[in-house]
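We emphasize that the prediction below concerns an isolated chain of 265 residues; any contacts that depend on oligomerization or on bound cofactors are therefore not represented. The input was used exactly as deposited, without trimming of termini.
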Amino acid sequence: MESLPRLDFFELHDLDGTPPVLRTLHTESILTIYRLTDAAREYSRPLALALRSGADHRIVDLCSGSGGPVPLIQRRLHASSVHTQVTLTDLVPNVPAFERVSRRRAPGSCCSVDYVATSVDATDCRVEGTRTIYGAFHHFPPPLAARILQNAVDTRQPLVVVDTKRSWLYVLVFPFFLTLAVLLAAPFQRNPLPRYLLRLLLTYVVPVLPFMMFFDSVVSFLRMYGRAELRRIVDGLDGTESFTWTIGVEPGFTGAQYLIGIPRP
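Result of the prediction step, given as a token string:
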């Protein structure tokens, strides 16, 4: 599938007309799937590699959604005596979700989570630290993807991008698995009562959330960047030679493909 062109199409939860509460329910479902699949096990390895290569232990997570997998990754790294401080950001920040995540870490401890409550544009980020983008890079068409990487180069901030590799296996199998996960996990989601009842309604009575997960996951896997496409974007950056770039895939269930950029001394 690497030889096929990347499909540039829309996902339902990205549309301007999607109600914010529905977008929140969707991103919360994605976070639940991260937990169910233990994605942090494979997703943590590229970040650990970047940290060993000199990346800042201050992590600035872009496109954090409802918290994303980075806090889960932080716990796994902490268990390996790798300590980080995480800042959650998003173009449309889910502040209540960020607050819930940050309360799970004591401020000032070796591992903490804070957040930026205002909008942070991944193409023009001014927050210093190692930038991470987990499961969201495929949302950006090539010109915007290049601007994200260019901004990291221009500001000399390390960057770790992790997404799923583009494979027919994931296109044909994973949407059914993810939709089943949404159906099974809905009663166990931790939400305030009104949103919990709305989740049950939109899962079992009017199955908007399962349909949304299925549609968006199919489109997501078709939008994933291949390794050759990532290399072309990197090669087209101004000053790309000032960074060391690593592109690879972690073996495992999630098919985690990564792009690491570290400023050269």
